[in-house]
Structure prediction request, 378 residues.
Amino acid sequence: MGRFEQIYEEHQEALRVFVQRRAPESIVDDVVSETFLICWRKLERIPDEPLPWLYAVARKTLANQRRRLAREQRVDAADPASAVAELEPVGDTALAAAFAALSEHDREVLRLIAWEGLSLSQAAVVLGCSALACRVRYHRAKTRLARRLEATEAFRPHLKGATR
Amino acid sequence: MTNDVIARLAAANPLPTAAPPRHPQPLVVPTRRIVLAVALMAAVALPAAAFAGKLGDLLGLSNEGTPVSTSSLDLSKDTSLNEAMQQLAFPSAMHLLGNKNGVGFYAARRADGDYCFAIESKVARGVGCDFNGTFPSPARPVMVFPPLIRFAGFAADGVATVTGIDASGNTVISAPVSQNLFASRVPGPFPSVVAVEALDTHGNVLATEHRPGR
Prediction:
């Protein structure tokens, strides 16, 4: 089996999930395909640990797709989120609210660690920063999420008892 | 507290397991006949008028398409592809043979008689030239474009279906041919494909081309 085939077999499911968490289903196939196309073109330059590299390429591809969608849908390119669906935490309303209140900068590093299961050094590859910068970014994001969560839960209304 | 938050976030993962099972999709490796970005300089581009209306005869394809200026194509605006097209001495005009499943197909002939092809879709573009001059022929009735975005390419007259076959002989991907063109509706990549078959309208195999090294 060639290296490309090996990379594809080992990582295509993880890459698809990665994209699914960040993009509407309608463009998942295209983003995954384009990511592997770039992988194929740059096969000789892919590091020994390909998955973070694939994630990084997928993020850039997704950003391009967002810009294209924004243009096509005549939405404000400054608000590309309107053209993109990102999955939120499920089964924990307070956490979802706190997570949504964070910046995308914070959310992404938290996703990479908590959902993709990456190490800090792997996340740094995805984010294109140093491991140290990633560590700082992660701890700050984690702290902000904890504070947001505390605040969210502190103001959670008590629904016990009857209402009428 | 903060570590608890991460554990809680992990537990709220909206896609906690692998995505819904999908069959690995095939990669059709670039054919040996298609050469990408080969440094062949300085051939004189063939004026559009030189073969306008003759593309079918030249290629052995019924679909003559519509002449278009090469510079008007989106792929010409891609810096790396534009450089490759210059190196390959792409003609200044190509023929748009059609669009299928979001893929646009173009063909042209270089001044020295070799054929060049291009495809473009929203997410990928590619250019290449057949320097061996073997397409189309009974032994080589299909030109599959590399490799990942769609199972797509050109097929000679008489080819009704093009299929990608895995090592066990199973059909991984199949695309009907019309107007000498085919493009799968399902996006790639298709790494398990080891051979491409051209079938006639009765399902008879006209030719099989194996991937290099397979």
Helices of chain A lie at 3-20, 25-41, 50-72, 93-100, 104-115, 120-127, 131-154. Residues 88-158+160-164 of chain A form a domain with the Arc Repressor Mutant, subunit A fold (CATH 1.10.10.10).
